Amino acid sequence: MGATEKLRRISMTPAARRVLEAAAKLFYERGIHAVGVDLIAAEAGVTKKTLYDRFGSKEQIVVEYLADRDERWRAFLAQHLDAAHPAPPARVLAVFDASHAWAAENNSKGCGMVNAHAEISDPSHPAYPIITGQKKWMLDLFTHLAGDISPDRAGHLGRTLVLLHEGALVAHGLNVFPDPIAHAREHVQGLLATTGDTTVKQ
Predict the structure, then answer these.
(1) CA-CA distance, 24 to 61, in Å (whole number)?
(2) Tens of pLDDT along 63-99?
(3) Spatial distance between the Cα atoms of 200 and 186, rounded to a whole number of angstroms
(4) Residue 122 CB neighbour total at 10 angstroms
(5) Of 82, 190, 189, 196, nearest to 148 (Cα)?
(6) Average of pLDDT values for 158-177?
């Protein structure tokens, strides 16, 4: 399911897990390029030798950071979709509800993938497929959900939903106005009500 399955991944020893946890916090808060391996090693309580023995390079740490974040998001979203009302519009809104909850817990500075893409725009970077892969996966998900609502307009509706969703995530990170994800959800609810199926979970 997506690009992360084709990437080279490492086995997580306790030391590697400490490195990844430290790197994830630093990368998200300060930026990937701004954080060096010396700082990651110091925050993780390991030597640089241990870090390189486990990961081989900073690039691989970035891969593990983004792949882990992507996997956690997909699992988090799956839980919300499983718990959602089975009506198709309610399942679309469940994605926005999941994003709202995820943002409150994990995204104080906005979407980690969008932030990473601002620093990693070279397709040859090993982490690049993770970033674009998650967004393509979200488009596929919204298109699939849209197909249950309006089969003839699934592609168009899916793209519209992605634009509203991703725009809300960016606005959340910029903190331009309060609660943009809830604002986007409200507009999505109105949009879906015009499709003819008004069974939408409030």
Answers:
(1) 9
(2) 999 999 999 999 999 999 999 999 999 999 999 999 9
(3) 11
(4) 8
(5) 196
(6) 96
Distance of alpha carbon 158 from alpha carbon 147, whole angstroms:
8
Please give the Cα distance from 146 to 77 (Å, whole number).
17
Q: Predicted confidence band at 108 (pLDDT cuts at 50, 70, 90)?
A: confident
Read off the pLDDT of residues 32-50 as tens digits, 9 standing for 90 and up. 999 999 999 999 999 999 9
- What CA–CA distance (Å, rounded) separates 59 from 24? 13
DSSP helix/strand/coil, 45: coil
Measure the CA–CA gap between 125 and 47, rounded to whole angstroms: 26
The answer to whether residues 67 and 6 touch, using CB atoms and an 8 Å cutoff, is: no
pTM assigned to the model: 0.90
Copy the structure tokens of residue 56: 């081989």
DSSP state of 150: -
Q: Are 134 and 73 in contact (CB under 8 A)?
A: yes
82, 97 in Cβ contact below 8 A?
Answer: no
